[in-house]
Amino acid sequence: MSANMKRLMFIVSFIVPTFLLFCLFTVYPILKGIYISLFDWSGSSEHMDFIGLQNFREMISDPVIRTAIYNDYFLVFWKVIGIMLLATLFAVALTRFHMKKAAFFRVVFFFPNVISVVVIGVLWRYVYNPNLGFLNSFLSLFTDEPVKTPWLGDEKLAMWSLLPPSIWAGIGFYMILLIAAILSISDSLYEAAEIDGATQWKQFWQITLPLIWEQMKVSILSIVMTTLNGSFIIVTIMTEGGPDNATQVMGSYLYQMGFKQFHMGYAAAIGVLILVLSLITTVALQRLMKREVIEIS
Q1: Is the pLDDT of residue 15 over 80?
Q2: Residue 2, pLDDT score
Q3: Are the beta carbons of 262 and 175 closer than 8 angstroms?
Q4: Strands 39-40 and 49-50: what pairing?
Q5: Partner residues linked to 40 by β-bridges
Q6: Of 226, 210, 103, 213, nearest to 169 (Cα)?
């Protein structure tokens, strides 16, 4: 056997198992979900009625679906802004400003990423508790009457109330990613900028931001994808989609229809919708954020 053939066999021996696992745990579930979306099925019965695209036609007229899509992109928009602003601020502060005990603050900011999302949801439910919660108790210090605001029970406040725990839980990971990117920038660039009289603000816009843009783009795409596909966890724990479906997202509605109301075919159709919207959003963002890669040799 030639050296090239041995090399090819070596590469294939690593690629094939990974590809098979990818097909088993990613491709097959996607295809199975698309297949199930064409049926009226409870999920527990052997009988499945083929109804074609009826589930998708029902989604068009389903007001909860429209609310869920809006809520998902509401979370996407504000999480991208909140997480990226704070993660970038903390990353720059802990690297460029040479703060004391920077390592300690990195651990503190990263700590929420170690905690389970379920624990975070339960914790913030107590924070928002209208009678015994920390938030109302704190606000009551500045008022004559006790504050009893039902943060998670008010249709206008509930979605906004989901943002702080969602943002808080995601800052640490992306901060570490941006710190690694900033530390890879040569100090000579900043020294030259200081000699030219550039302020810290100008150094950030003209040196730091352009050179960490690829990491920021990856972070934004990651936030978008994890939100569209995983926001149902925090929603289910904190509000269960209420009040009156005001905080329903596509994932939580899928769970409700599939595992509570046993409309598994309709739930699979929602899953297909999540897949399509995720792909469209990812492609659109990649085109929108595309820019020339800056390399410093």
Answers
A1: yes
A2: 74
A3: no
A4: antiparallel
A5: 49
A6: 226
* Tokens at 16, concatenated: 């094939």
Residue 42 to residue 146: CA distance in whole angstroms = 47
Q: Across-strand partners of 50?
A: 39
pLDDT of residue 292: 61
- Of the pLDDT bands very low, low, confident and very high (cuts 50, 70, 90), residue 1 is low
- Report yes or no: 238 and 125 within 8 Å, Cβ to Cβ: yes
- Looking at the predicted structure, is the pLDDT value of residue 247 above 90? yes
Give the model's confidence band at 12: pLDDT under 50 very low, under 70 low, under 90 confident, else very high: confident
What is d(CA 231, CA 229) in angstroms, rounded to the nearest whole number? 6
| SS3 assignment for the chain | CCHHHHHHHHHHHHHHHHHHHHHHHHHHHHHHHHHHCCEECCCCCCCCEECCCHHHHHHHCCHHHHHHHHHHHHHHHHHHHHHHHHHHHHHHHHHCCCCCCHHHHHHHHHHHHHCCHHHHHHHHHHHCCCCCCHHHHHHHCCCCCCCCCCCCCCCCCHHHHHHHHHHHHHHHHHHHHHHHHHHCCCHHHHHHHHHCCCCHHHHHHHHHHHHCHHHHHHHHHHHHHHHHHHHHHHHHHHCCCCCCCCCCCHHHHHHHHHHHCCCHHHHHHHHHHHHHHHHHHHHHHHHHCCCCCCCCC
Average pLDDT score over the chain: 89
Average pLDDT rounded to a whole number, residues 39-63: 89
Residue with tokens 């070596």: 10
- 234 near 165, Cβ under 8 Å? yes
Amino acid 293: pLDDT = 58
Contacts of 265 (CB under 8 A, 6+ apart): 36, 37, 38, 39, 40, 41, 48, 51, 55
